[in-house]
Amino acid sequence: MTNPFTSDEQQRIVNAIRQAEKATSGEIRVHVEPHCANNDPVQRAIEVFARLGMHQTKDQNGVLFYLAHVDRKFAVVGDKGIDAKVPADFWESTKELLRTHFAAGNYVEGLSQGIERAGQQLKHYFPYAKDDTNELADDISFD
Description:
alpha/beta, 15% strand, 5 helices, TPM_dom, TPM domain-containing protein
């Protein structure tokens, strides 16, 4: 396991996840590894999504931010529930936001802003209900 983030940076990312999830039943995870196993970040993100059990959310509204930091590859994938509701350009425009920050080496800021953006969409389409539970851990997973 290699971790490119300091403990303060990790906390910023986890805080962004918690803040984004406050107003929604949606779930957001961040997964970081040095290398993209099969060289296809979207396919790898789908594999990690399944391994983390993200498809088990009640409303199928999980969003995964995947980063292979050494290979400089990343992907953002969402489950069926959220994918069916967000605007057609949402995933691509979110990737552009990340790409802009990542190109400048600002991984924490890029992830934080991307998470906030996903949280806004989740809040809009899957507002928080009183009986909501945090279905998935907020911490960053590493390989």
